[in-house]
Amino acid sequence: MYDYIIGQVIRVTPEYIVLEQNQIGWCIYTPNPFAFQITDTNQQVFLHMHVREDIQQLYGFKTLEQRELFRKLIQVSGIGPKGALAILASGNPSQVITAIESEDESFLIKFPGVGKKTARQMILDLKGKLGSLMTDQTIIIPSKDDELPLFGVNPNQHQLDEAILALSALGYSDKELSKIKPHLEENDSLTTTESYMKQALQLLLTLK
Question: Helix-hairpin-helix DNA-binding motif class domain spans which residues (predicted)?
Answer without folding.
Answer: 71-90, 106-125
